[in-house]
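Ticket #4471: structure export looks truncated?
Reporter: QA, pipeline team
Priority: medium

Steps to reproduce: submit the single chain below to the structure queue and open the exported record.
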Amino acid sequence: MKQPAQEEFASAAPETAACCRGHDHCPGSDRSHSAHHDHDHDHDDSPALHPPLAAALPPGAALFHIPAMDCAAEEADIRRALEPVAGIQALSFQLGARTLTLTAPADVLPRAQEAIARAGFRAQRIEAGSAAPAAGGMAAGLGRLAAALALAIGAEAVEFFAPDARWSSGLGMALAVAAIWLAGLQTYTKGFAALRHGKLNINALMSVAVTGAFLIGQWPEAAMVMALYAIAELIEARAVDRARNAIHGLMALAPQEAQVRQPDGAWQTVPARAVPLGAVVRIRPGERVPLDGVVTQGHSAINQAPVTGESLPVDKSVGDLVFAGTVNETAELEFRVTAGASDTTLARIIHAVEQAQGSRAETQRFVDRFAARYTPAVFAIALGVALLMPPLMGWGWLDALYKALVLLVIACPCALVISTPVTVVSALASAARDGILIKGGTYLENARKLRAIALDKTGTLTEGRPRLVARQVRAGDEGQAMRVAASLAGRSDHPVSQAIASALPAETLAVARFEALPGRGVKAEVQGHTYVLGNHRLIEERGQCNPSLEAELQAHEAAGRTVTLLASEQEVLAVFAVADTIKPSSSEAVAELQALGVRTVLLSGDNSATVESIARQAGISEARGNLLPQDKQRAIEELQRSAGATAMAGDGINDAPALAQADIGIAMGAAGTDTAMEAADVVIMNDDLRRIPATIRLSRKTHAVLWQNITFALGLKAAFLLLAVFGSATMWMAVFADMGASLLVVANGLRLMKARLQP
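Actual output as written to the record:
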């Protein structure tokens, strides 16, 4: 049985490192923070792409933005740095947003920032309601690296064209030193610090490799390696940020301003984050909705694709919900604001996906374990090559030392480690854009293992609201019977009566002496005659049943329909059959699930006849009715024993025991519903059941991409290890190979952002 969803992203701490290169603290390498930040290559955390981050902090809490914090190991460094600071009451990290919420007295905060700075990170305080500060641009960093690369090329040119000139050694060495200083000063600083603490990280490995190459006279190559390494960091960091920022791109869909009605009736444009709850906002055709709300005036079609993934616009009128980021297409609307800018459905989706990045999938945990052993093992091999190969194989000492240095350059499993978070985040972002909110890599990867899924009936397979599906006039004038029925049904607030009233002509008649008959129906006078509109029991009590009518009613009831009858004082005039109809997409979704090898079962608290009827319409062979919540939970346990991994799809509230028991709980139609969004592991933002097989397909594709990347990265490492020891691989070739592998696995993972989730 799965763990509660809340545990999966309570702290977002165990995220896999984004990579050894652009994210300095990979599993097993214990890096302090990203070197590309030291080259002014900070992540592009533009406020336009981020929601307000400090809108609702707990009392006594302060929010800090830490641009270089990318993985759980970096979080651990910060935690260790803050441990000696007295007065800190609580820490809460959000790796996706690179933020730290710190609860402490005001006088402790400066000391906390100093401790974070000593750990090698820059922590920027964010005021309430503000967005993350914009990071520095790439221009300065690119200029520095371009200069470093030019100097390294100059050192190579001097070595190539004038190897014997008396001035060449001095000039080449000076060019190399300048290139290394421009590209790798911070790498050296952190590398030697790591070595002093007995840690092996990529900074330590690069520092040893470049220093060793320089000392044995290979200073042009040492300079080229450091320059290429720094450039690789920058490119990879940008590629990783593309995946990380994919979901933040959704937030840019919500306008930053809104037209708000003032007390005097005038309209004023104000910042969206300053609009209070209850304010009335106006949106014109073609404009995006700035905040969540309820329509108070107008009728229009809204394109809800950014939130729910629906491909067709949805009609909205008075009383309907609208969501921030959606597009008003046809007419002007006014709505009352129900959620602030930082609490809209769109903002909650983004927050949930950021939280989800902290839930590591099985493959990510494997990579973490492997990486923790890989780097020390390669370091040991390099040491063995340098010390043992000369006496054992007759190699020259300088040749053996050079080969050992090449091994150090390729020792960090960058391509391996970077592939998992980029792939997972890309898949999560792709799913979110299609209206599927997956709360973590665990659920993303485990969805491929599902062998059975239990489906609730109401609101999952069916529309969740009754509709008039059949009517039959048994006596009198049909038009008069329909008008009388519409007049009586329109006065009742019962869902069945409302379904009848909405399906009949709008023309109604005056009603007098209206009376509700609890548990049976309604009674009233229309044009001087008494009529009743009620259930089978009421007609039996009035003695108006006959064999022909009984047979008709039994046929409707066997089909799972609720029957309502219109009768005068003398006879039954008409029969109306109401049913909760199946969604148009349900049969297709069930067929897709079965084609994927997933067993489908319908579980419902409704009567068995209705449940079996809906199951037949949907193409489900297994159906169980009359189930209490605990019965559904036991049914899930049985499916887990007989079939294996089992999901439960329901509304996220009434089916709580079954959702908790299932390996993956899926909430349907949860747009705007806080409870459902919090309760389930996977949230389908609209009512389209086809998103469930789409989730399974995405899970399978994600797993395939993860193992493609792992296989490629490990294969390349193995091949280069052999070339380094027994072939003629050089240090700059090793850097190019490592950089190329990393970029290829990143590009492969980013493909999932454009994955088609429908067959």
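Status: closed, not a bug. The export was complete when the record was re-opened. Leaving a note from the reviewer for reference: The radius of gyration is 33 Å.
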